[in-house]
Design a protein that fits this description.
Blueprint: H1 8-22, H2 29-48, H3 58-76, H4 82-90, H5 98-130, H6 132-151, H7 156-169, H8 172-182, H9 189-214, H10 217-220, H11 230-233, H12 237-257, H13 271-274, H14 279-290, H15 296-310, H16 316-326, H17 328-332, H18 335-363, H19 375-395, H20 397-404, H21 406-423, H22 429-432, H23 439-468, H24 474-505, H25 516-532, H26 550-560
Length: about 550
Amino acid sequence: GSKSKDGSSERCTCMLALLVCRCPFNIPPSFRAILCLALFDSTHHMLLKQGTPSPLPRDKLLVICLCYLCDSVSQTQLLPFVVFMVRDMFHLREDNSARLVGYYSGWLASSFSFAQFLSSFFWGAMSDRIGRKPVILIGLAATTLFSFLFGMSSSFEWALVTRLLCGLINGNLGVVKTYTGEITDSTNQARGFAKISLTAGLGRVIGPVLGGFLSQPVEKYPAWFSRNGLFDRYPYLLPCMVTSSMGLVGLVMGYLFLTETKLPARRFKRKDEEEESGKDLFHFASYSKGTSNSSTPGLLYELKTAVLSLFNRKSVYESNHSKRFRSPPNRILRRDILLSTGLYGSCAFVFSMFDESFPLLLANGSSNGGLDFKSNQIGFLQSCGGVSLVIYQLFFYPRIAEHLGALRTFQMGVIGSIPILVVIPFIQLLIVHGQSASLWPTMILVFICRTVFAQTCFTSVFLLINNSAPRAILGTVNGLGQSLTSLSRAIAPALATNTLAWSFTNGLGYPFDFHFLYHILCVLTAGIWLLSRYLDASIDHPQHDKSVSDQELQSLLQTRD
């Protein structure tokens, strides 16, 4: 009875027990009960008494990370060149076009997030109906096509429509989290989601780098790109072609290597429907063969439910959730689900406001609280944050989350962000008091801490959302979370820049000067921490680990005997 390295013995035991429970032949219930009790006890000891973490399904995780990278790069690649694209489209001059360029650039930059706000819930719900893999492939196909078409934009209307369509048809940012939650369990989900969060962070770094270095290649690299060629006519096509190629690679790899993780809908039917034929068993066997060994605890949960249904008794699962299976809205309007998705949207709002306003603050003079940084200095600072992100997500976050749990780790990230937001507008005092030598070490330390705490919040809230929902509606719940986050990211940039601009020009003193925005962010962050206090500690574990109690199963078996 030792736990196998690949989990095959546990899966075989679970499958054998399910065969006994659900086979359509006329086997006496007492005989089934004896076999099921023995098989359940064996599987229970192998899975729950051993402390060895399940191995990550690296092949599937690699493909999923590539999918997430494509979406993150597609979302951020236009940021360095959107201003120049708008100028070219409207044939505007630099000296008298700032207001008009800002207006149309804002529309282009926020259109993807606004479209995702409209569509993410739909795609999440669709993944619960048709499966995760088809939705992921549709999203990758949308990235491949519309990224290329966006690069060929010669009018504002064309660019706006392609960005909107890319966001509307691509729902992968939520579905990928659902897929990750289903190929991991409570012993390895922190490591799995750390990889996803790392990929998202890298995408937000790689996207602007591609856009900045590869846009307008004829002007930047005249030795390689000739005048009157394709890239002279479409100066922003090259970075979009790279993103489109990444999407195409992800589409092919996803088609070849991703397996469906959504459980067959038939597994939720009533006992009398299941016993009409043996097809349910083969549906489940097909699912189990396609998933990773880390989903073995899900097999144990399925075994518990099947054994309970054997005795024609109402299980905890049936009594608590049967009505919810018939009424999706009621299943979503649960406290843990609403709180965890609300925390995700709130974090996205706060950190999006910071990300949009921080470069503007740095670029301003010291009289406005800035440091008069140039673009290359801001880029260097952000690269330091990117390096710290890789190190932290690979080596530190999984250990912290496994030790503290997702909820306490999230709260740690939120609390740690507050002093960073307090300190940032006061850093310019180093210059005022002649401590310029301390400026760069201080800025690097502060920005690294900001990056670490932000990624702690986002990775942990991914875990909270996946642990808040039953598996049958996990895609819908992640879609809801992504919709709220996309709405936040569509609103926050404009709100942050306008608030900061007002604080620069209002002529008021502290705290309504350049400190004002960051004090507001501190208050909002404290509100996020207070909101997280309403979550129960049981959210540290996936829903399927706690849906049916082992004590109830043993009690029912003893009662039957």
